[in-house]
Q: What sequence folds into this?
């Protein structure tokens, strides 16, 4: 009897007290799929959001809103005045930052993204070369939902190592950690399409330099381990003909060691690249073991050169995007590291890149 | 009581009582307190708990399996014990109710931010009441079922193995920590709960091998904590970990399964299983003590009063910070109870032995 | 009783002085007489009373309860042809038994025996009939491989089905009678040396303590002897399969048969026993294991799918994967009510279909299936009453509920599903967690004949797991389940 009363009272009270105010019924919500942060010419923050919307009967469509505001949260409040739906950011997948804004620092926006428990740590951080709001809100003939399109483009590209995969979590992790600086992929408007525009390098939260998309794979070689990707190597010209080789199905591993020579660190970066040749128009006989070895050294040389150039660029800009500092830190004592001003030392550190290439196969042909 | 606790059940009961809400903040606390590779502090804490367990073991051995109340009441007049009893009742029922409140407030970070937390608290207290009136043996059975219902979540740790980088761990041990005395006790709160096993003595027999069970339960907790903290220290960078309020929630939020995402609020909901046991065990202990003061009152009614009072008290702290402040104080007191109570019992037992010895000599 | 005493009783420990009234002594003492018997059957028009004045014998029987052939051959023909002075000799033949007490006599006539009154002495002859329905297949517990016979309504046939399978003199039978008016025969079976006699005594004690006018089925009987009658879960396993019951006997369980009921009860039971079917043992172990795991997955699906749908669409939109989001929103956007009502509507519709299908004859039942399929599958979505993803959730949880072999258990689980859906509609994932917690706390308090309902899990018996969650090869199934608390643990004496 007592139990019955208990159960009844639980049900009764919980129905009375039920969380009506916290209901988020899906069809009453505008899911912000992507958001962009931009800076207008007069220094105002421009915020655009894209909401894919399912209309009954018709095909999937979308809504975009654009506003100027002091912060993203404020923008959401202003924008929700324009929509019949409750705007919610729990399904946010992609955050775009205009390069002009990113040059001034984006930490306050990142901070507000991290603080919000609704937003997933797996949100992508992306830079836009040009007007981010325009990129997000314009019409693409073949892609009804630009936010979705951009996300899939980035997803595919990061799988192929054309851009690094950078989520909110990664960005924050690298922002906080000493001895590594965050990076972010850059995209740009190209008429009917969006294309990958390279990799943006950050010093703290400020965008300072970028890498060309063709260098993306070199960056990937130096940054860590990966298992998929392809690259075209320009191996110089012989008899007026440009020699190129295409390495695909790449597996790559990287190892960084640090040597101290009278307190000055020398960093050795070893990259081991394995792949198959799918295209080669040079003179070497690649079916032959000697030919392959020669090609391997040629490719290694090419990669090393490009890598050296990239590291020089980073050192000149004072960005440690490869996380060399972390390895230096780990090879020092704690107090030694604390007394070291790494960012001041970084441009002078000697980085020696050592690439070894192994060609697994050269395709179906025997010759 | 017909059935006695089995060794496995006692171990799981200890483990589930220990595992509570502190686990969500633990990696962050360790990072702030110990700095680099703070997860290594978990085994150190484990050793401290083992020292405490050895005190309990002495009580168990020397007392020859008598319940702690019998030991106390034989040498000390009941009137003098009442203040101690009242203190224990207050402390234990408060720990239960404040832990529940903290669980709810944390839940409101991720979902139901505007619902009145006391509505959740009401339902949780009802569940706690339903749990404690069933007696220790049934609580232990419930603990076992809940253990199986949440231990599988450990498999999610494998999800992060691909993301762990050795370089994030750094070779430094305990560098850059804060080393604040208060926080030591905060972290110790993650291990508290085993001291309630003092009350199991009356419910166990030789087959239970109580001491072994407590050590095992403690060990499971420690292994759990080590794994979770290890993954946290590799997945987050140290300054990032220091900045996070509930790192475990962030960890869970990063899991993406093909059919479901953002499972942190579901999994956090499942943590109710271990939280309800923590609450239930502390309230049950309070009830056991109060039964000593009011032996004629039905235990059902005592449980009801304790749950009701703690429900009323939990209206007072409103924000997460207040709750944290309360919990910190309670954990501090509980730490001293965990060490003090067995020491008191041992000294009483020594006196009893001495007088017995005199009697037999004379 | 005043409110005050009520409250006092609730607060203070008091030994309850009330105990069950002492069982009445059966009136076995009285000698049966014809007049008294006729008085007992006054106004029973179907009672046949014949007199044979020349041999001073009178017979009483119910014409529809006896086998006419047997009646003629064994009694009437003999009585007609006998000389008056040989009647005594005739009635000393073994088919005639002397009835010494009037209650036995009355019950005997009621159960199809013929009573022969000769002077002071009354004889009973068993000429029971007509034949009941023959042994057929079980409708509710079908298997693919293995024996197909099932119990029917006749307790003797059921007993013989068990005896034929367990040819042991250690198989003991206790006969009881339940129901003050129906006087239903109940048999309690156990195998001496294997069973723990505490269980038998407790089981028999509980059956004896039943004081109702009548019971008609085993599933009704067990509700009178449940440990916790208000619980949603069945606390005793019933089965219609003799092979399953024989295996329960050998596992050390107590078996109860009720006359007039094709289901047979086995006790004590654990929750997990309801998920095993005799099929598991007739298949190879890997198949048996896979099906058993499938049933536990089905259990998970049936209680969680719809409630997860409600919880996610009402409160936790962020949990939906991106690819599913738009389809879900689109199909939800035309639904006029909140997900909780949408889900309840569909679940109730499915339950209506199921109930209608169960009540109707098979041919019409099929029509119901088709109509239901169209209504639920298409029309509801097209009319914008539900979203198609909910249909999938509801349908799969309905199908999953039928995977559970015990009908009684699957009905209980379906009811639990509703409470989970409600909880999810009120507090989302937190509600689900609360509902599961409450469920587990409730189940942990349940017992079956005093032994824990969740046995191999809590109390934890890892050895039993290989015949609970999986069905490991026979050579590893060495011991009887620990819940039986048998002294004779080893069942497989083969060397590995």
A:
């Amino acid at each position: 009897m007592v139990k019955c009363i208990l159960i009844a009272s639980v049900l009764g009270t919980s129905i009375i007290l039920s969380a009506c105010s916290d209901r988020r019924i899906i069809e009453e919500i505008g899911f912000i799929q992507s958001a962009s942060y931009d800076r207008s010419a007069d220094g105002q923050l421009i915020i655009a959001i894209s909401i894919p919307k399912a209309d009954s009967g018709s095909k999937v469509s979308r809504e975009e809103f654009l506003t100027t505001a002091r912060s993203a949260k404020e923008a959401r409040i202003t924008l929700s005045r324009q929509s019949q739906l409750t705007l919610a950011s729990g399904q946010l997948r992609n955050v775009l930052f205009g390069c002009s804004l990113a040059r001034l620092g984006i930490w306050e926006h990142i901070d507000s993204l991290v603080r919000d428990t609704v937003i997933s740590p797996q949100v992508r951080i992306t830079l836009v070369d040009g007007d981010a709001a325009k990129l997000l809100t314009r019409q693409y003939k073949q892609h009804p939902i630009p936010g979705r399109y951009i996300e899939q483009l980035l997803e595919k590209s990061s799988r192929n190592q054309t851009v690094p995969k950078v989520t909110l979590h990664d960005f924050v992790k690298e922002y906080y950690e000493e001895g590594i600086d965050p990076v972010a992929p850059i995209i740009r408007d190209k008429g009917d399409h969006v294309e990958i525009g390279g990799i943006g390098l950050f010093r703290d939260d400020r965008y300072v330099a970028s890498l060309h998309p063709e260098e993306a794979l070199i960056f990937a070689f130096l940054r860590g381990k990966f298992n998929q990707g392809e690259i075209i190597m320009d191996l110089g010209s012989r008899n007026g003909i440009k020699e190129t080789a295409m390495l695909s199905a790449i597996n790559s591993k990287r190892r960084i060691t640090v040597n101290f020579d009278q307190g000055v660190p020398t960093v050795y970066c070893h990259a081991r690249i394995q792949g198959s040749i799918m295209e080669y128009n040079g003179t070497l006989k690649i079916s032959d073991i000697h030919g392959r070895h020669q090609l391997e050294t040629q490719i290694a040389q090419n990669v090393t050169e490009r890598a050296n150039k990239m590291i020089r660029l980073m050192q000149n800009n004072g960005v440690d995007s490869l996380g060399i500092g972390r390895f230096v830190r780990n090879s020092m004592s704690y107090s030694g590291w604390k007394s070291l001003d790494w960012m001041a030392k970084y441009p002078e550190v000697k980085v020696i890149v050592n690439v070894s290439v192994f060609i697994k196969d050269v395709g179906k042909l025997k010759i | 009581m017909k059935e006695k606790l089995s060794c496995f059940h006692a171990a799981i009961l200890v483990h589930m009582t220990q595992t509570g809400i502190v686990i969500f903040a633990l990696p962050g606390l360790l990072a702030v307190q110990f700095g680099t590779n703070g997860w290594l502090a978990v085994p150190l804490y484990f050793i401290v708990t083992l020292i405490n367990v050895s005190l309990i073991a002495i009580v168990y051995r020397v007392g020859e399996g008598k319940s702690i109340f019998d030991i106390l009441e034989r040498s000390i007049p009941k009137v003098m014990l009442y203040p101690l009893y009242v203190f224990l009742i207050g402390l234990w029922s408060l720990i239960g109710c404040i832990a529940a409140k903290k669980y709810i407030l944390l839940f409101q970070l991720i979902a139901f931010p505007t619902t009145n937390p006391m509505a959740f608290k009401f339902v949780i207290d009802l569940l706690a009441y339903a749990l404690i009136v069933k007696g220790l043996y049934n609580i232990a059975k419930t603990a076992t079922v809940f253990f199986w219902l949440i231990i599988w979540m450990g498999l999610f740790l494998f999800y992060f193995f691909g993301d762990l980088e050795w370089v994030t761990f750094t070779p430094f041990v305990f560098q850059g920590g804060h080393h604040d005395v208060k926080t030591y006790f905060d972290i110790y709160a993650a291990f508290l709960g085993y001291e309630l096993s003092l009350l199991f003595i009356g419910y166990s027999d030789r087959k239970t091998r109580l001491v072994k069970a407590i050590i095992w339960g403690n060990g499971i907790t420690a292994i759990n904590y080590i794994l979770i903290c290890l993954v946290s220290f590799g997945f987050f960078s140290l300054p990032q970990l220091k900045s996070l309020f509930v790192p475990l929630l962030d960890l869970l939020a990063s899991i993406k399964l093909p059919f479901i995402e953002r499972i942190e609020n579901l999994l956090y909901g499942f943590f109710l299983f271990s939280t309800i046991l923590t609450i239930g065990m502390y309230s049950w202990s309070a009830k056991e003590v109060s039964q000593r003061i009011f032996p004629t009152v039905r235990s059902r009614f005592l449980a009801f009063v304790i749950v009701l009072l703690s429900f009323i008290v939990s209206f007072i702290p409103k924000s997460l910070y207040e709750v944290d402040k309360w919990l910190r104080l309670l954990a501090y007191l509980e730490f001293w109870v965990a060490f003090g109570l067995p020491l008191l019992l041992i000294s009483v037992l020594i006196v009893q032995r001495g007088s017995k010895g005199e009697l037999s000599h004379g | 009783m005043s409110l005050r005493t009520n409250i006092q009783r609730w607060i203070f420990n008091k030994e309850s002085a009330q105990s069950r009234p002492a069982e009445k002594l059966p009136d076995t003492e009285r000698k049966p007489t014809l007049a008294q018997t006729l008085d007992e059957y006054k106004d029973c028009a179907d009672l046949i009373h014949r007199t044979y004045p020349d041999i001073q014998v009178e017979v009483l029987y119910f014409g529809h309860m006896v086998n006419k052939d047997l009646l003629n051959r064994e009694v009437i023909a003999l009585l007609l042809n006998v000389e008056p002075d040989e009647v005594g000799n005739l009635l000393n033949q073994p088919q005639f038994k002397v009835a010494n007490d009037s209650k036995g006599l009355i019950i005997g006539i009621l159960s199809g025996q013929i009573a022969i009154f000769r002077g002071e002495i009354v004889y009973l002859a068993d000429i029971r009939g007509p034949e009941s329905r023959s042994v057929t297949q079980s409708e509710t517990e079908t298997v693919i491989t293995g024996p197909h016979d099932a119990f029917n309504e006749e307790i003797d046939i059921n007993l013989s089905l068990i005896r034929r399978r367990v040819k042991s003199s250690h198989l003991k039978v206790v006969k009881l009678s339940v129901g003050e008016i129906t006087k239903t025969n109940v048999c309690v079976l156990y195998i001496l040396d294997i069973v723990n006699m505490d269980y038998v005594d407790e089981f028999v004690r509980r059956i004896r303590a039943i004081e109702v006018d009548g019971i008609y089925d085993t599933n009704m009987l067990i509700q009178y002897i449940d440990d916790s009658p208000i619980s949603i879960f069945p606390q005793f396993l019933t089965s219609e399969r003799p092979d399953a019951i024989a295996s329960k006997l050998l596992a050390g369980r107590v078996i109860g048969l009720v006359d007039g009921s094709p289901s047979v009860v086995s006790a004590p039971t654990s929750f997990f026993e309801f998920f095993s079917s005799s099929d598991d043992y007739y298949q190879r172990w890997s198949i048996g294991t896979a099906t058993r795991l499938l049933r536990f997955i089905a259990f998970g699906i049936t209680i969680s799918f719809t409630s997860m749908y409600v919880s996610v669409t009402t409160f936790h939109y962020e949990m939906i994967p991106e690819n599913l989001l738009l389809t879900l929103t689109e199909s939800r956007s035309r639904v006029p009510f909140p997900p909780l009502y949408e889900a309840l509507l569909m679940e109730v519709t499915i339950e209506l279909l199921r109930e209608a299908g169960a009540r109707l004859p098979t041919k019409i039942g099929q029509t119901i299936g088709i109509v239901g399929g169209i209504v639920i599958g298409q029309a509801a979505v097209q009319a914008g009453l539900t979203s198609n993803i909910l249909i999938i959730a509801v349908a799969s949880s309905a199908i999953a509920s039928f995977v559970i072999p015990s009908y009684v258990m699957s009905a209980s689980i379906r009811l639990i599903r509703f409470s989970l859906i409600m909880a999810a509609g009120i507090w989302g994932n937190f509600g689900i967690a609360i509902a599961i917690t409450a469920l587990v706390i409730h189940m942990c308090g349940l017992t079956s004949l005093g032994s824990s309902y969740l046995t191999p899990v809590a109390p934890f018996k890892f050895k039993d797991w290989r015949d609970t969650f999986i069905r490991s090869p026979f050579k590893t199934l060495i011991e009887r389940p620990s819940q039986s608390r048998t002294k004779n643990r080893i069942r497989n004496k083969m060397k590995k």
Chain B touches chain C at residues 6, 8-9, 12, 107, 111-112, 120, 123-124, 127, 130-131, 134, 138, 140-142, 144-146, 148-149, 258-263, 265-266, 269-270, 272-273, 276, 296-301 (CB under 8 Å).
